[in-house]
Amino acid sequence: MTVTTPDFPHDVAAVHEATEQLLVSVSKLDDAAVGEPSLLPGWTRGHVLAHLARNADALVNLLTWARTDVPTSMYASAEARNADIERDADRPLAAHLEDLRESAARFAAAADALPRARRAFEVEMRNGVVERADRLPLRRLAEVELHHVDLGVGHTLDQLSPGFVDSELAFLATVKFAGHAGLPALELRTEDGRSWRTGAATTGAGTGDAPVVVTGSARDLVGWLTGRGDGAGLDSHGSVLPVVPPL
User: Fold this and answer.
1) Which of 73, 105, 155, 215 could form a disulfide with 189 if both were Cys (CB 3.0 to 4.6 A apart)?
2) Which of 122, 155, 188 is the last residue of a domain?
3) What is the pTM of this model?
4) Would you call 66 exposed, middle or buried from its count of C-beta atoms within 10 A (0-12, 13-18, 19+)?
């Protein structure tokens, strides 16, 4: 299966909906809770929230590049990105909420300003990854949905929207991990009959080259592939479930 052309307006609306759900969850915290550990090693909830706000602005840079044809990096540098997160992590809850709302509004405005004719324009993300402008809302949706889980505030994999789960599974299988040398050849199968080949390419017809078949719900597959689940609900058909490289 391949990744289909994104539905840009639908995906922008999905980002807005997921952001609103995130803001509801965050608004129930207090200053002390913001400073508590998140589910991401070494990061507090404040780090996650600061990252989400700065990621929105980074994607605004790419949408602006696509619209204007003026190359604009996501971040000034990796060091600047990390420094911004550290700088903002310890802010009070009110400051985080304001930043999340304002950066989300900037992202929505930049998406709205992108002409239809420029949606297929390719931009360069971090680490040299090339992406079409019309896939940037899906990139943002993954940030919001998965980091909502990482906050450890009761938003779990079970609460991820089915539309996001399906699009993210297709992306992970056909783009993120396709040909990835750090992951054995896999055949992912969902319980409703869909399947993808991903991971390292097989080199022949020998038994040792056969892909590891992993079957389960799309939700459990996404959790495992993104490091948000241990794969306990998956069936690897007698093989050891491989360790997935970090995203």
Assistant:
1) 215
2) 155
3) 0.93
4) buried
